[in-house]
Each structure stands twice: as C-alpha cells, then as structure tokens.
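Hey L., structure's done. Input below.
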Amino acid sequence: MIARLIQGARVAVALTSGPGPAEVEVARRIASRVEEARAGRPILNLIGQTSLADLAALLERAVLFLGVDSAPMHMATALGVPVVALFGPSGERSWGPWGDGHVVVTSPYLCRPCGQDGCLGSKRSDCLEALSAQTVWQASWTKRVNGNADASELEGVSHTGARQALLEPDTEDNLQRLFYDRGWTDGLPIVLPTEERVERMLAGTSHARDEVVGEVGAR
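Output:
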C-alpha cells in the first residue's frame, strides 16, 4: 500500500506510531517491507518519535491521512486533513471521522464492531486483516486524486456525512456511563479535549489556540 502511494500517487509518505515497543516493532516491520519499492521517493520515518505537538505539526502539512481508528485520525480530522480510516473492531458510527468528505473502509464481518482487543484475545483482528490492499489503495487514490469521486462504489467503502449528535457538557466519567447505558460505545474510553490536551496538540502548529481553522458539522 505504501509503495503504491509512493509510485502511483507520487507522494512522500511519513510513517508514525505510538511509543510502545510492540507498536514500534510492527511499524518498523511495515517500513522494512517497502524500502525496496520506494524507487527513490522519500519515506519520512518518524516511528515512535513524535509527541502530540510534533504529530499535529506533521499532520498540518499532510494532504492525506491513512490509518486506523486512533487519536492521530481524529487529530487529522480536526486539522482539516482528508482522512481514509480503516475500521475493524471499533465502530465507525460512533468513532468515525467527523464531518463531510472523509472515507471509511470496513470489511463485511457480521461480528464487527465488537470492541474487542483482537479476536479471542489474540491482539489481532480478522476484520482488519481482511481489508485488501487494493480496496484501501482505491479509496486512497480516489480521495487523493478525484476528491471522493469513485470510492463509494467500492465494497466496504463509505463516506462520512452529517448527523445530529449534540450533548450537554459533562465529565468523562458521566459521558462514558451515558454511552454505555444507551449502547453508543464499543467500549473504548471517552477522552475529552481539555485545555491542557488542546494546548499540547497545538504547540507544534502555526495556529493560535482561539483560531478557527475549519468548521466540522455534526455527523
């Protein structure tokens, strides 16, 4: 997939990951598989090296974010970067990228979303591994080149759109309880954008904390 982006879309690719040893190891294995296919095009290897501020600064310069349901995905959405998001055990209806124009890729597994950390405790999710490189590539290609023209015709690919989802301000614990009670969650914790967290994210960007960088409608 990375090799196709480099060779087909003619873009530079930046690879990032969290600091955890297991995540870093997986990301390094991915990077090693594309070294021979890069054909002189740059790969910016930032695996395990970025703080939240660094990641925000990097995303601010990106033309496309490709990744799984994660904090970086939501950061990219908040910064106005087009997103191609791969969803497995977590639910895109609750946790998908907010606003119009993003692309969500899923597999047709009836058991998803289950909110489990891998199938049968394995730390590996069949519904994620079943996503083909071809489908992800086509979703990324249409997003990168055509805006969003043809991706919706692909099986397992959908576009984000508007929906009403407004709640009164509350604590993380109360919101977590509400989401559980109403069946709105797949079990992942709710993390609110507190002032401290927002300051850390914006520290590496050119934006002021009170600057409006884009508008996202309710999905």
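Strands lie at 13-16, 43-46, 65-68, 83-86, 103-105, 157-159. The longest helix spans residues 21-34.

-- N.
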